[in-house]
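ARCHIVE CARD
Drawer: 12
Card no.: 0347
Subject: one protein chain, sequence and derived structure
Cross-reference: see card 0346
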Amino acid sequence: MLTFFGLNQIIYGHFLGIHALQVVEESSVSQQLSQAVANYRQLLIALIQYFPFTLWALVIAVMVRFSRRRNLRQPTMAPTMTTWLTILLFALAVPLIIPPGAGGKQWGARFYLILIPLMALIGGIYLNQMLSQRRRWQHYLVLSGLTLVFLAGAYLNVYNGAVVSYRDRDTNSTSLRHNYQPIATAIAAISEHSSPYIAMSHQFVAQQLWAAMPDKTFFLTESTSDVRQLAEGLYQQGKAQFLYICYPHRPCLTPEESSENLVVISKNTPLQLNFSSIGTVGKYPLYDVMITDQLGSG
């Protein structure tokens, strides 16, 4: 982990890496503590809900801890305790530095994923110890519990995660189908739009849509001045229309600008940008933008 943080510091100038763009916003100590408490709750619930093996491992750990034949635990005590300490430190540290809402849409406890192989290692050690010191019927009980945990995890992660449209508000977990449905609707509508030029208010729009529309050209226009610059360039190439897409999770103010702020002067010719709302398609507010010559010459 230290190597990972060190490489982030060298490459991105922040130990959290590129994700730091969402994390380094200024906030008070009370806000940070409140955020950390909310993150603890969300991540711990997600870890237990989507990796139920965690509960099984904790139960087995308690059973082994209070076992009378404690000598069986000695050969693996040191590495086991080291692993537990690593899990504890990581679980306590991560919620302090991640953004509110534990990082947006995800599945399960995304920031706790590194704990899953560690918990699996711990569980395997304890399972081996339990099977070596318990009666046969207790072996069946332990293995039956493990089977139930596996089936529950498969249902939660495979069925809910990939087969059905599912969203858990408590953990912000969003299934593939639930996430893709509004994007697919937007792709279908945008593909049918006559203009091959698309302006977008945020780079996330292109990340979600561009790969499905190779015949469209995307332009990142984060400000009104960017939109005006794009319109001028298109007009000089004889184009008079483009599609504007707002990213729904960030402010998108350009379509609400006054007409005076949507005027472009191109070679002494005043051009007016007219935004016409198409509506929200999927999850994206869409606007048809026409570039008109105010002098009436084009």
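Annotation on reverse: The CA atoms of residues 185 and 266 lie 36 Å apart. Residues 71-75 have pLDDT under 50 and may be disordered.
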